[in-house]
Amino acid sequence: MLALTCSCSDETGFKGPVEMQLWDIVTYEGSTDGGDRSRFTFRQVDDSPLITLISPTLLPAETTAGTRMIIRYIPESGEAYTSGNITLLSAARVNQSPVATEWKEEFDNWNRDKVYLYSVWRTGNHLNFHVRLTYDPEPRLFQLAADPATIGTEYPDIYLVHIMASPTDYHDRAYFASFDIAGVWNSPQTKGIRLHVANTNLDQQEFTFVKDI
After folding, report:
1. What are the backbone angles phi and psi of residue 109, rounded to the nearest 5°?
2. What's the 3-state SS for the chain?
3. pLDDT, tens digit, for every residue of 119-178?
4. What integer pLDDT is reported at residue 2 of this predicted model?
5. Above 70 in pLDDT, residue 11?
6. CA-to-CA distance for 43 and 40, rounded, in angstroms?
């Protein structure tokens, strides 16, 4: 999540209203009952209260409910992370899929193509990523996969699988992704998860997320 704020001071000589723009990964819930407004829901972090945002801007008809998106917006109330009406400035789909709970042979090379990890954070049943990946127009395998032998244990192991069609040496691009981990996270025995990433940013390959108890 990234919040951009503007400020004014006597030194700049800026006068006038200050608007706060917010960026968040949200779930598009479809249009309101009247069909004239768009509705989004999200949690700021972990298990914080569910926030509902309403915008008079309608999304394209082909956008289905349940789509994970990153939106840029201004809350009409001027208060960040509270439910209410917003001015929607932009909206774009992000990569999304549920965590795979059956291990496939192709996952064995989960760490072949490295990932430059900017950030990873949990919001409810979603694990969200901001990463840099090598650009390639060809389809690639990019998803979360759980080790089936650890599902139902206190700390299941989950892997960020990134396998390109073929090893490619090219420039990078930034991507956002949001994966549904409910299939693993909501097990009564589970106290948290261990996330494994072939990370080239800093010397950290494992991240632990613990349930709020």
Report:
1. -95, 35
2. CEEECCCCCCCCCCCCCCCCEEEEEEEEEEECCCCCCEEEEEECCECCCEEEEEECCCCCCCCCCCCEEEEEEEECCCCCCCCEEEEEEEEEECEEEECECCCCHHHHHCCCCCEEEEEEEEECCEEEEEEEEECCCCCCEEEEEECHHHCCCCCCEEEEEEECCCCCCCCEEEEEEEEECHHHHCCCCCCEEEEECCECCCCCCEEEEECCC
3. 999 999 999 999 999 988 889 999 999 999 999 999 999 999 999 988 777 788 999 999
4. 31
5. no
6. 11
